[in-house]
Amino acid sequence: MNHYGAQAQKHWRTYLPQRYATIEDPSSFFSTLGEQAAEQIEQRTRELAGPDQPGEGYLGKLGRLNAAKQMAEEEILPELILIDPNAEQPADETPTGSTTPVASPTWTPLVEDPNDPWWQRVAQEEDDEDEPQTPTR
C-alpha cells in the first residue's frame, strides 16, 4: 500500500467510521484507492506543469514540478482520500438543532473581505451566537 492508501485508511477509520466499516477487505481496497490516487495525481501534475520552459534551469524546473504536484494533490486528495466527513451526511438530513443543511466550504479565503459571501455567512453565524436568548413561557 502506498502512502496515499495509508493516508486514506487512517482518515476513513478516524473520520468516516461507518463507511470504513462497510469495506470487506480494507487492505486491498485502500491499496487500490492509493494507486488510483497516485495515477490521477501524476496525470494532473503533468497537465499543470506543462512543457519545459526555454532556458529553465534545474531549480526552476524542480520548483515548477513541485508546485504542480502540490496543486494536483490539493485537487485530488479531497475527492478520493481525505473525504469531508460532513459530506457523508445525506442532503435531506440536518444536524441536531439545525433547520438548514450544513454547507462547509472546500476552502477558506485568506483575506477577510466583508463583501465576500463566505465572510458574510460567518459574520451572520457569529451574530446569531452573540444574541441573548430570551426565555419563552
Strand content: under 5%
Question: Which oligomerization state do the chains in this entry correspond to?
Answer: single chain
Question: Helical segment tally?
Answer: 5
Quantity of strands, as a count:
0
Shape: flat
Helix content, binned percent:
55-70%
Spell the H/E element sequence: HHHHH
Major sheet details: none
| Low-pLDDT residue spans | 90-105
- Report the span from N to C terminus: 60 Å
Mean of all residue-level pLDDT scores: 80
Structural class: mainly alpha
**Cα-atom radius of gyration:** 21 Å
Task: Characterise the protein shown here.
The protein has 5 helices and no strands. The protein is an all-alpha fold and 137 residues long. It has a domain at 3-88. This is TnpV protein. Residues 95-107 have a biased composition (Polar residues). Residues 84-137 are annotated as: Disordered.
What is shown here, in short?
With 137 residues, the protein is mainly α. Helices cover 58% and strands 0% of the residues. The chain has a domain at 3-88.
Main features:
flat; mainly alpha; 5 helices; 0% strand; single chain; TnpV protein; 137 residues; 58% helix
